[in-house]
Amino acid sequence: MNRLLAIIILALTISVGDAKQKTVTLKSVMRCANCENRIKQNLSKVTGVKAVKTDLKAQQVTIIYDSQKTTKKKLQNILEKNNTKNKNSTSECGNKEKCCSVNKKQ
Hints:
The chain is α+β, with helices and mostly antiparallel strands. It has a domain of about 70 residues: Alpha-Beta Plaits. Helix content is about 55%, strand content about 20%. It has four helices and three strands, in the order H-E-H-E-E-H-H. The chain has a three-stranded antiparallel sheet. Helix 2 runs antiparallel to helix 3. The radius of gyration is 19 Å and the shape is elongated. The termini are far apart. About 20% of the residues are buried.
């Protein structure tokens, strides 16, 4: 009986611990690998962000984060700032010196 109770308590503890961790997939504007890297760097700096995965082809960013340390809205706002920079750029990626010149060499 004590063993069963210990297993139930352990399972509940693990479930509660995982409840803080959330995953969200958001649309994004990415034109190249440097756009992806900029988004990863900016989101990774946010307290509570555990992992960031970008998908250039699908134009999506998947973020794993601690919901007690940050919010989906905050992550969306950061991503939207990046999207605006990328949408309004006159060069391929918005960072002509670092990106487009590198891409042309390839």
